[in-house]
TrEMBL record:
Any single GO BP term: riboflavin biosynthetic process
Organism: Streptomyces scopuliridis RB72
SUPFAM superfamilies referenced in this protein's UniProt entry, alphabetically: Dihydrofolate reductase-like
Domain called Bacterial bifunctional deaminase-reductase C-terminal: residue spans: 3-187
Protein name, per record: Deaminase
Listed transmembrane segments: none
GO function terms (MF aspect): 5-amino-6-(5-phosphoribosylamino)uracil reductase activity
Signal sequence range: none
């Protein structure tokens, strides 16, 4: 069974961006040490158009072969003229408003997203599934998330877009590892508690 991993950047107080979802405040913390970690451990989470300028477009996927993202996350790429932001992965975008995909490499999911994720998780072999934001999609998939990888940046935003836009419910996870960086960033990995 493949895993769905919510791999996300957050502030100390648990926001993935400002109230509009803008996460550019985190960018100054991607220094040489942290970028080397991202490149070595999670190269597939870097968008294709971001990998090319660094000459790392040929790096093999280590953890994921599929990405599922919400409409707002996909819109960030579309605003820059990029219709296939994760060309090195199978790409799914959850949207009720996009009727036809602007790129043949991107499949639009407009129905039951949890059912689609269960279908993807049931596939034989392969790597895992990368949940690439945002809060609404993570809220819809809370019960399907098997693993959390939380990159916590040393900032307090005070308010903003939460990690999960959902009603109150308890979901218990077990801490598997913590890695710290000189710039104050923490990367924590959690597995869903059985």
């Amino acid at each position: 069974m493949r895993k769905l991993t919510y791999y996300i950047a957050v502030s100390i107080d648990g926001f993935i961006g400002d109230p509009s979802g803008d996460a550019t405040a985190f960018l100054p913390f991607v220094d040489d040490e942290f970028f080397a970690f991202l490149k070595a451990e999670y190269p597939e989470t870097l968008p294709t158009h971001g990998r090319r300028p660094f000459g790392i477009d040929d790096l093999e996927n280590r953890h994921f072969d599929t990405v599922i993202q919400g409409r707002a996350s996909y819109d960030l790429a579309l605003e820059n003229g990029v219709t296939s932001p994760y060309a090195h992965l199978r790409q799914y975008v959850v949207s009720r408003s996009i009727k036809e995909s602007p790129d043949p490499a991107v499949e639009i999911v407009s129905g039951d997203v949890a059912a689609k994720v269960r279908e993807l998780k049931a596939e034989e072999g392969g790597l895992g599934i990368y949940l690439c934001g945002g809060a609404d999609l993570a809220g819809q998939l809370t019960e399907e998330i098997d693993e959390l990888i939380i990159k916590t940046y040393p900032l307090v935003l005070g308010s903003g877009m939460p990690m999960f836009a959902t009603d109150f419910a308890l979901s218990e996870f077990t801490l598997e590892s913590v890695r710290t960086f000189g710039n104050g960033v923490l990367v924590r990995k959690y597995d869903r508690k059985p």
